[in-house]
Amino acid sequence: MNTERFEYHTAIVEKIPCNLCGADSFVVLSERLSNGQRVRTCMCKKCGLVYINPRMIRKEYDRYYKVYYHGERLITKGRIAPRYKDPAKQGFENAYRFGRALAFDFCGWIDRGVVLDVGSSYGGLLAGIRDMVEGIRVVGIEPSSADADYANMRGVETHNTLFEDFSGADVDSLSTVFCVQTFNHLLDPRGFLVWSHDHLRKGGHLILAVKNFRQQCRRAGSVSASVQIDHPFMFVPETLQEIVRSVGFEIVYFDVDEHKRSKDLLRQKKRGMSVHHMRLVARKVQEKPLPRYSVGAVSPRFLQIAFWGPYVKLYHFFAYGDLRKRLISGVY
């Protein structure tokens, strides 16, 4: 594992429009990360999408993932060494349990054929799904070289590349596309949705598990403490559904952990399911994806209030304060 710090201030950055609606007007939610690095987090005034702007160019993200990703994540979590003696093996096993839990819950939406996972890491999720569902071929896309190498070593076919650089020549007519805890990492999430729509067969399904940024901020007590440089886009339930529908998918299942009881979250965690996330299943119901359109179902002003500093701090104090933390320490 590389032990050098990633020097974000030296990276080449670019200004971008909103990925959902294409607008270029925004309000600034935060100017820094919790470690002091200058990173500007914005919210689109038109549709409410939250994103980093300006953000690193593709080449810089590729370098970050291939060399620095795991080391930087350790530092973000306040560690100097991996929690486990063999982090790749443990990561594979954790994801394997998660894959089996997903396959159990969503078996009605995983069909025979090619199943693709974007951001497949060590390959455990695909291995778990493969062992639960008959008649599927699993394929992963993973930008981290170490993760992709480990996945291939464990027998999970994995392409070591950014999704944006993936040709996809041999994975047409997909039955299912997974993007689990990776959607935030994509440089063009709507472009990924269009690509998925193009490559899924009619009736095929897209399955997402995405961090709820509003819940992240409330748990952390601030916006700046919740922003990650490897999460160029951040979603809440309203904008996640909106961006999926904007392409032409039909949402057939949507589950949010934001207001669940502690015992329900513990139950999810014990069987391998993620917590503090949103899970969505969408079906391809037409041949062509929709063109970008003018969105208006989300109220950006309402979402902006949810990220107002004093409100976030108060919510954190009452919902996730010390007493609350002790009560739900198993899932916090």
Describe this entry's structure for a reader.
The protein is of the alpha/beta class. It contains 11 helices and 13 strands. A 7-stranded mixed β-sheet has the order 8-7-6-9-10-13-12, sandwiched between helices. Strands 2-3-4-11 form a 4-stranded antiparallel β-sheet, with no helix packed on it. The protein has a two-stranded antiparallel sheet with strand order 1-5. A hairpin with a 5-residue loop joins strand 3 (38-44) and strand 4. Helix 2 (87-105) packs across helix 3 and helix 6 (213-220) packs across helix 10. The longest helix has 19 residues, at 58-76. The two termini are 27 Å apart. The model has no long low-confidence stretch (mean pLDDT 88).
Secondary-structure class: alpha/beta
Helical coverage, percent range = 25-40%
Q: What is the tally of beta strands?
A: 13
Largest sheet: 7 strands, mixed
DSSP summary: helix tally: 11
User: Roughly how many Å apart are the termini?
Assistant: 27 Å
Shape: globular
Q: Could you spell the SSE succession in H and E letters? A: EEEEEHHEHEHEEHEHEHEHEHHH
Strand order of the largest sheet: 8-7-6-9-10-13-12
Mean pLDDT: 88
How large is the radius of gyration? 19 Å
The low-confidence parts are none
Strand content: 15-25%
